[in-house]
Design goal:
The complex is a heterodimer of chains A (about 375) and B (about 160). Chain A is an all-alpha fold and about 375 residues long. Chain A has one domain. Chain A is about 65% helix and about 0% strand. Chain B is an all-alpha fold and about 160 residues long. Chain B folds into 2 domains: about 80 residues, Up-down Bundle (Four Helix Bundle (Hemerythrin (Met), subunit A)), CATH 1.20.120; about 40 residues. Chain B has 6 helices and no strands. The longest helix of chain B is centred in the middle third of the chain and has 24 residues. Classes of the chains: A mainly alpha (about 375), B mainly alpha (about 160). Chains A and B meet through helix 4 and helix 5 of A and helix 2 and helix 3 of B.
Chain lengths: ~375, ~160
């Protein structure tokens, strides 16, 4: 049938009632995984950031403050839900859902363990980049329909960042597709006998930076820069709708760390432990690095962020694509541990050389 | 059966989106109507086993074109009531109806060639081979790419401050 490409090739026949049970169980499982990870990640973020800033962080509710996020959820859901009088009401209502659903849709193609995935789409990499752009439209809707100048500025920055950082991200992923000669996520993981973070370090650096910008984590959180825009696109939101927007933000962080670990750290692959444990370990490591960057680097201005995207990340991603193309044509078998230092050396040379063009304060760049 | 239901739902959604584009007063709503239309058409591609086309439709039309449109709307004045009602309602109605009638007549009077072969399920590799393989359409792809690049450079040099 025409829905055949949605069927995961590996597991569907084993399940009773095949497709529908698989769909139901995996959907429930993925939503549960996402919710639990979001709640744990909020706790983790507050604790880790507190640690970086030599504070204690939330430690009163439950052991180590683990129940703090649950208390926050209950608090936020009992708040009054206010809609501004001059807001565009239908759009104001739809926007949080429009932002959240695509994040959930990305999870559908991620294998949590060997074969444990909702759908093994054969163009999974393209699917992920296509779907992730819809979130930006949802965030933009929320900013535009609030009828508030801060929301509007935040929304505009969101779109500007999306346009700029989508391109280096896609180019970095193109190198990955070239190396694994497959666009399905399980194919990309299957090609990683050595994680792509080591064989394509340049793509790894570009991808992580572009991802930080796409999910609006701190060096790029211009969308809700609280010192300039009160809260950016979600200034006017409250109650349940604010909760959904907040959930979107952290789901993006969760999915972002899953994407880093799936594309570049080998996903569920790893010795001894079961796949899902490896995925969780890699997720936590990626999220820790994201937090580390957040607590180290101050926020960029919009022109600096644009400059980084167009003048640094885009050429670097091109370099990576070029290196991968040369490698694929002339040395297709060259993916053993001996080649890793070569890749790392090439990456270091390119980044250091390119950084010399990018000294701050050389010239002023308008956008 | 399921495919038929999906077709009708998606077709109605696409038509609703297209109607919203021409009838909504706010420019922002028209852009969102366009997004709805593009997404439903991507869904139609999925029901026709064109999985790669459907996903590329979302990636390019929703992720790039609609987003750029929204960016352009942000830079225009009078977003709230920018989609002005036309003063030529009667001529527009007549020509619209004439065009609709003509296309329905053409559709009904064409003998459509339906291939008896089963659709290739992973379409991405087939399309890729057709476009980039030796003996494929690689020359056309390269020429199109060069054209787009020239247009881009031309736009930049035309818009640049002297």
């Amino acid at each position: 049938m025409s829905t055949a490409f949605l069927l995961p090739a590996t597991i569907a026949p084993d399940w009773p009632g095949n497709f529908w049970w698989h769909l139901l169980i995996m959907t429930v499982l993925l939503i549960a995984v996402l919710m639990i990870s979001v709640i744990m990640f909020i706790w983790l973020e507050r604790r880790v950031i507190a640690r970086f800033q030599a504070r204690v962080g939330p430690n009163r509710a439950g052991p180590f403050g683990l129940l703090q996020s649950f208390a926050d959820v209950i608090k936020i859901l009992t708040k009054e839900d206010i809609i501004p009088a001059l807001a565009d009401k239908p759009l104001f209502w739809i926007a949080p859902a429009m932002a959240f659903v695509p994040v959930l849709m990305i999870l559908a193609v991620i294998p949590l363990s060997d074969g444990l995935q909702l759908a093994d789409i054969n163009v999974g990499v393209v699917y992920i980049s296509a779907v992730s752009a819809i979130t930006a439209i949802g965030i933009f809707m929320s900013g535009m329909s609030s009828n508030n100048k801060y929301s509007l500025i935040g929304a505009m920055r969101e779109i500007a960042q999306l346009i700029s950082f989508e391109i280096p991200m896609l180019l970095a992923l193109a190198g990955l597709v070239m190396a694994s000669s497959s666009m399905s996520i399980s194919g990309v993981i299957g090609a990683q006998t050595i994680p792509f973070a080591l064989t394509q370090p340049l793509a790894f650096v570009v991808f992580v930076i572009a991802l930080l910008a796409e999910i609006n984590r701190t060096p790029f959180d211009l969308v809700e820069a609280d010192s300039e825009l009160t809260a950016g696109f979600n200034t006017e939101y409250s109650g349940m709708k604010f909760a959904v927007l907040y959930l979107t933000e952290y789901s993006e962080a969760v999915v972002g760390s899953i994407l880093i670990s799936t594309f570049f750290l080998g996903g569920w692959r790893g010795p001894f432990l079961p796949g899902i444990i490896w995925l969780v370990i890699k997720m936590l490591a990626s999220f820790f690095v994201i937090l580390w960057i957040r607590s180290t680097i101050p926020r960029f201005r919009i022109d600096q962020s644009m400059k980084l995207a167009w003048k640094t990340l885009l050429p670097l991603a091109m370099f990576n694509l070029f290196i991968m193309a040369v490698k694929t044509v002339f040395a297709p078998g060259l993916t053993n541990w001996v080649a890793v230092p070569v890749y790392l050396a090439i990456t270091a040379v390119i980044i250091i050389y390119w950084a010399r063009f990018m000294r701050p304060g050389r010239q002023s760049v308008g956008i | 059966m399921g495919i038929n239901i999906a077709f009708w739902v998606l077709a109605v959604l696409a038509a609703t989106g297209a109607l919203a584009v021409v009838s909504a007063r706010s420019l922002f709503r028209t852009a969102l109507g366009l997004v709805l239309c593009f997404l439903s058409i991507a869904g139609l591609f999925f029901t026709l086993s064109a999985d790669f086309l459907g996903i590329v439709q979302v990636l390019i039309y929703v992720g790039a074109i609609a987003v750029l449109l929204i960016m352009a709307i942000m830079l225009t004045r009078d977003v709230e009531k920018g989609n002005l009602p036309s003063t030529l309602k009667i001529p527009a109605l007549v020509s619209g109806l004439a065009f609709a009638g003509l296309s329905v007549w053409v559709m009904l009077n064409t003998s459509w060639q339906v291939s008896s072969e089963a659709p290739t399920t992973p379409t991405a590799s087939t399309l890729g081979n057709l476009l980039f393989d030796q003996g494929g359409l690689v020359l056309g792809v390269e020429i199109a790419a060069m054209l787009l690049l020239a247009a881009l450079i031309g736009a930049i040099s035309a818009a640049r401050e002297k």
